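@channel sequence for tomorrow's demo:
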Amino acid sequence: MPSAARLKDTFKDWVESYPEETPESKDPLKPLVLVDVRFEDFERWLKKPKAHWQFSDLASFSSQVLHQRAMQFLEEAKDKEQTKVFPLDYIHFVLTEVGNDKVNDFASIYHVSETPGFERQEPVVENVMLFFEYGMAVSAAYAIKRKVNAIFFTKKQIR
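structure tokens (generated this afternoon):
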């Protein structure tokens, strides 16, 4: 497979071989999200002989896996104000809409734990200029990255 030298047995080995790539992004709105890729799933998806596999095939498959997981989170996201029962861990996206357009909107993203005795609301991103759709996409990335199972959102308005 061309570019196979970039592949490593573990993520740790890969990071050591490419020190400029780190799990913690310098831009919190662009987190590095790792997805598990199962060989069997990749082989079934690709449908071509192993001799013709390319590194770009693996990258495309990984991207598709990430996209499917993110879309599932976005489709299942709920308005926190309309919800009565919450899971123990979730991502909470809080949007403050300023004015009638999206230009001045700002948002925060929190990782919330409702585990009794260990309740917390950890800021992931705070008070950044962000509109709803992009903020929800970033929230989905953090839900995958932090291995939580739900996203809730709250919209506040300042007119």
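heads up for whoever presents: The chain has a mean pLDDT of 88.
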